[in-house]
Every structure is written in structure tokens, then in C-alpha cells.
Design goal:
By secondary structure, the protein is an alpha/beta fold. It is built from 8 helices and 4 strands, in the order H-E-H-H-E-H-H-E-H-E-H-H. The chain has a 4-stranded parallel sheet with strand order 1-2-3-4. Strand 3, helix 6 and strand 4 form a beta-alpha-beta unit. The termini are far apart.
Amino acid sequence: KTYKFIVVAPQSPSWGFRPSEVITLLNDLEKRYRVDRSRIYLTGYSAGGWSVVSAITESAAISGRIAAAVPMSVAAIDKKNLRQFANVARASTHCWYIAGSSEGRFMEDTRAYADSTNIYAPGLAKMTVIEGFTHHSWRTLYDPRTKPDGVHTIYEWMLQYHRVDRYQGKVKDQ
């Protein structure tokens, strides 16, 4: 039986995966499995969201491999990466940031990362704030029946993007 996608959910033994570890994981998966390289997606929650945002902002080489990302309730990223959202825009990596209205700093940081992408490529990132959600609501968000925006599950949203898709607008210099 052929599946439309493979879900890999690595668990970090500590805080989260550094960008170099994300690259190692992707390289290993591509060696072991028949991976459609135009349809690689990243998602993560809290420290996992930190891993996703850190990876896609780290370098054009990493963000250029990712068709779309869904970082949720993202923990604060490193200062270096705060200045590198142009990498996401140049790679046309679509991002859907999700956070709960009752998450305080996590929601604020998540919104700031969406805004930081859209500075360079307006509309490339979208933000959804879910009323009443508190931190640790990840089970609901990853449930394939949940539509955080009322339209798409995170899986439907990611699968609409391919690496061949390119942002049609001009990437602004900051």
C-alpha cells in the first residue's frame, strides 16, 4: 500500500533538536526511505516549535528543503535566528503559526515569528490564535479531525504545498 506521507515524530532527549540535528535526521530519512523531496514538512510544539523555527531560519540550505512548516506555541528562539527570517522568505517556505490565547509569552513569540516572516514576504506566514487554548494542548492540534482555522487540518494545510511552489511576491530587504 502506498501512503501519501510518512510521519516521523522524534523525541529529543533534552530541550529540542538543533538545526544540525534536523539536517542529520532529514538526510537519514532520505537514505532509508523513498522520500518525495518536494514534500518535506516540519511541525513541532513548544520546544519542538523552537526546533522547527530554528531550523527554517538557520540557513537557506535548510529552509530550501522544507515545503511548509507548522510551528505551534513556539518557545523563544535564539537571538541569531531572530535576524534570519529572510531565509524563510527566500526559500518560499510556507508557515502556519498556531498558539492558544491563554499561552501568554508563547502566543506573543509565535505571533512575532509569523510577523517576522511576513515582513520579507507578505502572506507567506499565517497565524491562528485558538481561543481558550493553554500550553500543552498539542494532542488536540495534532488530531487529524481538528481544524485550527476552521478549514484545514494541519496535515491538509501542509500537503497543499510542494517545494516547487514559489512565493510569487518580491522578498523585501530589511
